[in-house]
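Whiteboard transcription, Tuesday session. T.W. wrote the structure tokens on the left side:
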């Protein structure tokens, strides 16, 4: 197991946490990686911090967008520039546990999987533990339409098996749209129940705005997946119900 992993990280107003995020990558037991950080015209000092890491480690690369475009375009730019067989995702305020890559790549190879994910811990902005999200062991395209069990910070896909697959260029739920695109190709896959990453819940994060997230969920059904109105209603009801119970485990 020695294939290159390309780690995709969009950056916007990330100066508070980006050092911790990069350090969690540097601490990986699996070391054959490149980290592609895409600056989405951030107005803070995050680029200065990232630049210092780039000087210290050539595996860390910074790409600067010319205009603020949102996380989907930032991630897609990084995917286009990626050299690795494996594409992994890590946002600029989240963390990986040290054995994340090693365990997940072994799992993928052992089970001949093109796309995998894992459970993850949750922390607040101060690093306090809030709980653990236990993912589903198996998912399919149909089950993904009902609820997303894939945290973006845990996802890895194999370009050798799938080619490069890009996110729909919408402002929210773009990662969810990518999982659906991948599952259309492979129908189903497996995940790791052990939490291998740490998701930071922030007060003003995109995912914390439930109404807007729901609106983009509907947009995924109707405009991206082209589902009928009645199918969209059916899956949206499941989505809403699962959203209520998601972290009550």
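and on the right, the sequence the group agreed on:
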């Amino acid at each position: 197991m020695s294939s290159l992993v390309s780690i995709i990280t969009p950056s916007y107003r990330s100066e508070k946490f980006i050092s911790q995020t990069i350090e969690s990558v540097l601490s990986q037991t699996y070391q054959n990686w490149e980290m592609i950080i895409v600056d989405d015209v951030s107005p803070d000092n995050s680029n200065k911090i990232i630049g210092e890491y780039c000087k210290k480690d050539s595996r860390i690369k910074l790409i600067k967008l010319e205009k603020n475009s949102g996380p989907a375009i930032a991630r897609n730019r990084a995917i286009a520039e990626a050299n690795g067989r494996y594409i992994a995702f890590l946002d600029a305020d989240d963390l990986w546990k040290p054995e994340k890559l090693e365990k997940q790549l072994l799992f993928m190879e052992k089970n001949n999987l093109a796309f995998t994910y894992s459970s993850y811990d949750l922390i607040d902005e101060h690093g306090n533990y809030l709980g653990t999200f236990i993912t589903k062991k198996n998912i399919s395209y149909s089950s993904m339409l009902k609820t997303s069990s894939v945290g973006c910070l845990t996802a890895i896909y194999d370009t050798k098996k799938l080619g490069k697959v890009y996110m729909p260029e919408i402002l929210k739920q773009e990662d969810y749209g990518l999982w659906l695109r991948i599952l259309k190709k492979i129908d189903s896959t497996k995940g790791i129940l052990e939490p291998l990453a740490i998701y930071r819940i922030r007060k003003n994060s995109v995912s914390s705005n439930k109404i807007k997230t729901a609106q983009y969920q509907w947009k995924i059904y109707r405009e991206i997946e082209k589902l009928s109105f009645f199918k969209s209603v059916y899956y949206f009801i499941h989505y809403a119900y699962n959203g209520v119970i998601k972290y009550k485990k």
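Someone added at the bottom: The mean pLDDT is 92.
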